[in-house]
Specification:
By secondary structure, this protein is α/β, with parallel strands linked by helices. It has one domain (32-385): Rossmann fold, CATH 3.40.50. The chain has helices spanning 2-31, 33-36, 44-47, 55-58, 76-79, 83-86, 93-102, 116-132, 154-165, 170-177, 182-189, 191-197, 199-229, 232-235, 269-286, 300-303, 325-345, 354-360, 377-385, and strands at 69-73, 105-108, 144-150, 243-246, 251-254, 291-297, 310-313, 320-323, 349-352. The strands form three sheets. The chain has a five-stranded parallel beta sheet. A hairpin with a 4-residue loop joins strand 4 and strand 5. The protein is globular, with a radius of gyration of 23 Å. Residues 232-237 have low confidence and may be disordered.
């Protein structure tokens, strides 16, 4: 009996010490998270296991401090998705290059697949969590906000989100979105436990990074291109019409169905735009920033001249929709003019990249060949060179 008590006591002591050490380690992890959770030390796969707020620290676009910072909101386009990221380049996307040019601090709240409302909610939530934890320095309002609007699927995401919530009133819909999310709070406060929980997946991710190091960048990229070329989503399905882009001197096949200027929304485009305006208005109301800039990024269909009819990607669906260049152009102009008028009314800066992209798109692709859904290095550099007001 005495031996059993001694063993239970030892077990209890070991258990308490283990929990204590884990909690202390977790606290240190949170304290140093703006520096530790960086692309230099972690893969994005690893960051995907943590609360999304930690992805803000991942991008090497800041100095680990929260002084004189600029907020970046949007979806995967603002996060820098595309060929550069797949190839493992350090300066991928727009804002890594902008950081190098301006030396300013950019905190990126952009997330893959986010519509406009979720982008704003993410920033509000993350800033709130940072300010509520005693282990991180308080973060003031950003001196500037850059909102990257992507014509290809932002409005589709808005509409899908609105339809999912089944809210008849946009005001009630907005109120329901901006409430405290206790699961996110727990994950943000205890990142170490997320890491431990996902340790098997982390091990596999580490093996991938090690293989990249062993085979070298050149061979790794060659293998990646081969695998990408055999991906069914890149090869396309035989049942869909194949699309051809007409350049000045030749025609080339576009291997996936491109996203359009939200052509599939039809009359619902107005409600989707209302969500965009409500989200940005909420952003302006809750953050005291001296400047808010909306960067308008055209869809893939808008970026090129296509052989008609064009078989487009229908967001949130597996169906097919055939459109013409002129139909897409009219819809693109309507969206751009609507956002331009809204920006003027709210005293916001509106930078439309459509004509710049279309002009360059007369010569060659600005998307792919590894990721045809996002701009490649030529496309992102083109955007960077035309951000005169930033």
């Amino acid at each position: 009996m005495h031996s059993l008590r001694a063993k239970l006591k030892d077990f209890f002591v070991i258990f308490c010490v283990t929990i204590f050490l884990l909690l202390v380690s977790n606290i240190f992890l949170v304290i140093f998270s703006p520096v530790v959770f960086n692309q230099k030390y972690f893969s994005r796969t690893v960051m995907g296991f943590l609360d999304p707020c930690y992805q803000t620290f991942y991008h090497d676009t800041h100095d680990g401090k929260f002084d004189n910072w600029i907020a970046v909101l949007g979806d995967s386009n603002a996060a820098g998705a595309g060929d550069e990221f797949i190839e493992g380049k350090e300066e991928y996307g727009i804002f890594h290059k902008l950081r190098k040019r301006t030396k300013k601090n950019y905190l990126i709240f952009a997330r893959y697949g986010y519509g406009n409302l979720r982008a704003v909610k993410e920033m509000k939530l993350c800033v709130g969590l940072i300010n509520q934890t005693p282990f991180l320095p308080s973060i003031n309002d950003p001196k500037e906000i850059i909102f990257l609007f992507y014509e290809g699927n932002d409005l589709d995401n808005n509409w899908a989100h609105l339809s999912f919530k089944k809210s008849k009133s946009l005001e009630k819909f907005m109120e329901s979105e901006f409430h405290d999310l206790w699961k996110r709070r727990i994950r943000f406060y205890f990142p170490l436990f997320d890491i431990l929980r996902q340790s098997p997946s982390l091990f596999i991710s580490s093996l991938k990074r090690f293989s990249h190091y062993i085979v070298g960048d050149k061979n790794y990229n060659r293998i990646s291109k081969t695998l990408q070329s055999k991906n069914p989503s890149i090869m396309g399905s035989n049942k869909w019409k194949k699309n051809q882009v007409k350049f000045l001197s030749t025609e080339k096949n576009f291997p996936i169905r491109p996203q359009s200027a939200a052509m599939e929304l039809k009359d619902d485009i107005h409600k989707a735009l209302d969500v965009t305006f409500a989200a940005i208005s909420d952003l302006k109301k809750n953050f005291n920033s001296r400047k808010i800039t909306i960067i308008y990024l055209p869809s893939i269909v808008t970026s090129y001249n296509w052989e008609e009819p064009i078989s487009i990607h229908i967001y949130q669906s597996k169906g097919e929709l055939l459109i013409t260049n002129s139909e897409n152009k009219r819809r693109s102009l309507f969206i751009r003019n609507s956002i331009r008028e809204f920006a003027k009314l709210k005293n916001l800066i509106f930078l439309d990249m459509t004509e710049v992209i279309k002009k360059a798109g007369e010569e060659d692709f600005l998307h792919g060949p590894l990721d045809y859904n996002h701009l490649n290095d030529k496309g992102y550099k083109l955007i960077l060179n035309n951000l005169h007001l930033l």
